[in-house]
Structures are given as structure tokens and as C-alpha cells.
Design a protein that fits this description.
Blueprint (H helix, E strand, L loop, with lengths): L10 E6 L4 H11 L7 E8 L2 E8 L2 H4 L12 E7 L14 E5 L2 E11 L2 H10 L10 H10 L5 H9 L4 E9 L3 E6 L8 E5 L2 E5 L3 H5 L3 E5 L5 E5 L2 E5 L9 E2 H7 L5 E2 L2 E2 H15 L6 E4 L5 H11 L3 E2 L2 E3 L5 H7 L3 H8 E3 L1 H4 L3 E6 L6 H12 L4 E6 L21 H4 L2 H8 L3 E4 L2 H6 L8 E2 L1 H4 L7 H10 L1
Parallel strand pairs: 14-24, 17-18, 17-21, 21-22, 22-23
Antiparallel strand pairs: 1-4, 1-10, 2-3, 2-4, 5-6, 6-7, 7-8, 8-12, 9-10, 9-11, 12-13, 15-16, 19-20
Helix pairs in contact: 4-5, 8-9, 11-13
The protein binds guanosine-5'-monophosphate (5GP) and magnesium ion (MG).
Magnesium ion binds next to loops.
Length: 465
């Protein structure tokens, strides 16, 4: 597997004009932890100078009391980076700060660019030195090379040259917080307010914890400049068709967030209801694989009128840091995290609802544990269609080979995983279950139809294989 790819599925938070900017960013990042567990960082602007604290690990590990001190300043941005094996590097932690001719700038990026190689090669040929393997670094290079006077114009120059998915926050020494979302709007980004201070976050759950009031989403293709004189909205790019990442609703975002104009919990419940309509089966109970499968399982149970049981219990104290040193086998790690209740499921025909199957490896182990607990039949129901195509826009599956559904039929997957029946939600059913009618989604991981051409990434992967 190509672990050397930078993983760009992240969470970002920013605040302008609040004396407790640092603490609020810390809280915001805490609530966005699900979007990235590899590293965390906060950059604060104070008297024209940007200071940054970042480290590897969870928010409460990086910013544990006594370890890192409060940073004064009223403007701040923060970032959490997605965790996968292999590419954990402190130099890739964000916010990433550079000093250049016009001042300093810090960047926090959620997304993945698809046209970086060509641009980067050109800059390197010109003598540019790249310090990280992040595509986000390219953006600050382009900003630094722009000849425009105002920082927002330099940002426009830079963003005009990049393609792919980006929800971005910039903190600049000109005392500005700049938020930007790519013209397709792949990744969510929301604008809120705490009294007179503005906040921007990947998801609204970060507003709830900071007592911010949601104002609106940053629009696709919009650049919002927040400064002493208030908020300025710029839409410098030609309009593009929207391609909101549907996997945010299926798995990635937190259920208590509203993104893309709708609530994630309700969307997931709807997916479960639709799944029950499409794939009914006689059984004694509906079980979920906690936590991500809970909401679709509830919907399935309500629609099918088959009782919902919490037949599998999740150990919430299993963290990556604990598992990894002791993990002799994958089975052990999976078992430690989830444990079935034999007394509930023994001898029963169960429907197991799961939000998605990616590689199929954890599902196989989980089904084995259910068998060992004595279930009679397992009918697995998945609240999205088969994941057949890699994502180049920021979700963590970059190759076809790692996706079990790319090379196996549904029947074959059922055999591999060890279930009596396996059914996936249809593409139409998934789209029908989305909260806001008429929303255009990116569903490339299911259909292979990529809204932004990804040739460069694909050929890059082929070369590196
Ligand atoms: P699998 O059986 O494919 O190994 O694992 C399926 C599980 O992975 C599901 O419980 C699903 O919630 C979870 N999952 C879905 N997408 C992702 C992802 O992008 N990253 C991680 N770490 N887990 C995911
Ligand atoms: Mg899950």
C-alpha cells in the first residue's frame, strides 16, 4: 500500500477578534478530533507576529496542561490531521507558517490538490526549496511569488492556479483571517459568530462547544476575508458545478454537525431507512457496528420494525497509542475495541448495519467474533453502495487495490467477510436519502466519475508503484 501519500482528510478551525482565541481554537479542535488524529496545531497572531504550537498525537496529548502554554493574541487558526500508518511526520503537521517578503502567513488545509506535480516541478526548477511533502506548502509558495499588494489578492492568485479540493484557513501578519473553499465545494466549511468575533470551522459541532452561532456555509469558490473592518466576501473564480463529498454524510463528519445545509445524524438515519426499504430480511434484531453504524441501524430498525439492540459494545478507552505497541495481530485490536454480548445475540438471526466497507479487513474479523458468540444468521446491510474507486480529494483510500469492492462481486465479499447475506444501498437510494434536495455530490468513490480530472495523481501513483 502506498503509505507515502500525504493524508489530507483534516479538520480546521479559526477565530478572529477574541481575547481567548487560543483556548477557543483548542476547544474547536477537540470537537473536530474525529477528522484527524495524527497531529494537531494552533497558530496565533500577536502584535504582528505568528507563533505556533504543534505536535504529533491527539489534541489533548499535544496541548496537555503544562506541556504547552497559552499563547496570547486574538486571531488564531488550528488544524487536526488524519491518522493513518506510515506518513506520520511532524514536519507535515499544520498550521504551516512561512515568512516571506510581504510578511508571514500560516495555512491550515483540509482537502487534496490534484495538479501539484507540474506546478511544484516548475518552482523547484526555479530554485524553490520545499520543506514538507504536503501539497498545502505549494499554496504558500504561490502566495509568496504573487506580485499583488494585498494579501487577499495574492491568495486569489495562488488559488487560481491550483485544482482539487480545499477548505482553507490563512492567518496573516496583516491581521487577517482568510477562509476559502474550492469552487466545487468538496469539503465543508462553516462561518459563525461569538458576539463580535468571527469563527470558521470544518463542521458546526465546533460552534456548539465554543458557543458560536452558525451564520452560513462559506460558499464554494468563495474567499472570506475577516479583518478589523469586518467581513468581505470575494468570488473571483468562474462558477463550477458543486461536488459536495457524500462520504462526509456517510461516515466522516460528526452526527451532531450540520454540513452542506443538512444534519448528519438525520441523513444517516434516512440512509438506514432507505436500506430497510431496499433490502428487507426476516430477523430477530438489528445490530450496529458502533459508533459509525449506529445511526443507519436506528433508521433500519425503525423502518423494518425489527428491534434495535446494542449487541456489540465499544471500549471507548482503546486509543491508537495503546493498541499499537501491543498489537500482535489485527484480530486482537479489533476485539479489544468491540465486544459482542453473547447473552443478547446467541442463537439469533441478526441484521448487522454498517456505514461502509472499505478494505473489508475489520468487517471480516468482527463477523468472526459474532460467529464465535453463537449467532445463528448474519445479514449484513451497508448504508452506501460498494466503494469501488479511490478518492483523490481527501478521503483516505487512494488506490483501487485496497478497496475490496473494486475487484470482488458482492457475493464474493459476503463469502470473504463470512455473512449469510450482504446487501448495499443503491446509488439512487443513497442520493434520495440526502437531507437537502437538489444538492450535487461528488460520489466518485462509488461511480468513478471524478468531477475534477485526476490524471496527474493516477499517473503519479502508477509511477511510484
Ligand atoms: P473494513 O471492514 O472495510 O476494514 O472497515 C469498515 C469500517 O471502517 C467501518 O466501520 C467504517 O465505519 C470504517 N471506515 C469507513 N471509512 C473509513 C476511513 O476513511 N478511515 C477509517 N479509518 N475507517 C473508515
Ligand atoms: Mg465504523
Amino acid at each position: 500500500m502506498n503509505n507515502h501519500y500525504p493524508k489530507e482528510a483534516c479538520g480546521i478551525f479559526g477565530i478572529f477578534g477574541h481575547k481567548n482565541a487560543y483556548e477557543l481554537t483548542y476547544l474547536g479542535l477537540y470537537s473536530l478530533q474525529h477528522r484527524g488524529q495524527e497531529s494537531a496545531g494552533i497558530a496565533v497572531l500577536n502584535e504582528g507576529k505568528i507563533t505556533c504550537q504543534k505536535g504529533m498525537g491527539l489534541v489533548n496529548e499535544v496541548f496537555s496542561p503544562g506541556k504547552l502554554n497559552f499563547l496570547p493574541g486574538s486571531v488564531s487558526i488550528g488544524h487536526v490531521r488524519y491518522s493513518t500508518t506510515g506518513s506520520s511526520m511532524i514536519k507535515n503537521a499544520q498550521p504551516f507558517i512561512v515568512n516571506y517578503q510581504q510578511g508571514s502567513i500560516a495555512i491550515a488545509h483540509n482537502g487534496n490538490l490534484v495538479n501539484t506535480s507540474k506546478l511544484q516541478n516548475k518552482l523547484v526548477a526555479d530554485g524553490a526549496i520545499f520543506q514538507t511533502t504536503m501539497d498545502s506548502e505549494l499554496i504558500v509558495h504561490l502566495i509568496a511569488r504573487s506580485r499583488k499588494n494585498k494579501v487577499e489578492d495574492r491568495v486569489i492568485d495562488a488559488l487560481g492556479r491550483i485544482k482539487g479540493s480545499y477548505s482553507l484557513l490563512f492567518l496573516t501578519s496583516e491581521n487577517k483571517l482568510i477562509a476559502a473553499r474550492d469552487p466545487h465545494g468538496f469539503k465543508p466549511l462553516c462561518l459563525g459568530k461569538i458576539n463580535d468575533s468571527y469563527v470558521v470551522a470544518s463542521e458546526t459541532c465546533a460552534f456548539d462547544i465554543t458557543n458560536a452561532k452558525y451564520i452560513r456555509d462559506i460558499e464554494p469558490g468563495e474567499i472570506v476575508v475577516i479583518g478589523k473592518d469586518g467581513v468581505k466576501s470575494i468570488k473571483p473564480f468562474p462558477k463550477a458545478s458543486h461536488s459536495f463529498c457524500i462520504f462526509e454524510y456517510i461516515y466522516f463528519a460528526r452526527p451532531d454537525s450540520n454540513i452542506f445545509g443538512g444534519n448528519v445524524y438525520l441523513a444517516r438515519k434516512n440512509l438506514g431507512r432507505q436500506l430497510a426499504k431496499e433490502w428487507p430480511v426476516e430477523a430477530d434484531m438489528v445490530l450496529s457496528i458502533p459508533d459509525s453504524g449506529n445511526y443507519a441501524a436506528l433508521g433500519y430498525s425503525e423502518e423494518s420494525k425489527i428491534p434495535f439492540e446494542m449487541g456489540i459494545i465499544r471500549n471507548h478507552y482503546v486509543g491508537r497509542t495503546f493498541i499499537q505497541p501491543f498489537q500482535r495481530s489485527r484480530d486482537l485490536g479489533v476485539k479489544l475495541k468491540l465486544n459482542p454480548i453473547n447473552e443478547v445475540i446467541k442463537g439469533k438471526r441478526i441484521i448487522v448495519v454498517e456505514d461502509s466497507i472499505v478494505r473489508g479487513t475489520t468487517s471480516r474479523i468482527r463477523m468472526k467474533t459474532l460467529r464465535e458468540a453463537g449467532v445463528k444468521e448474519i445479514h449484513m446491510r451497508i448504508s452506501c453502495p460498494p466503494l469501488r474507486y479511490p478518492c483523490f480529494y481527501g478521503i483516505d483510500f487512494h488506490t483501487k487495490e485496497e478497496l475490496i469492492a473494486s475487484s470482488n462481486s458482492v457475493n464474493k465479499i459476503a463469502k470473504i467477510i463470512g455473512v449469510d447475506s450482504l446487501c448495499y444501498l443503491s446509488l439512487e437510494g443513497m442520493l434520495k436519502s440526502m437531507p437537502v434536495e437538489g444538492t450535487n455530490f461528488c460520489a466518485a468513490c462509488f461511480t468513478g466519475e471524478y468531477p475534477v480530472p485526476t490524471k496527474e495523481k493516477i499517473s503519479k501513483y502508477d509511477l511510484e508503484k
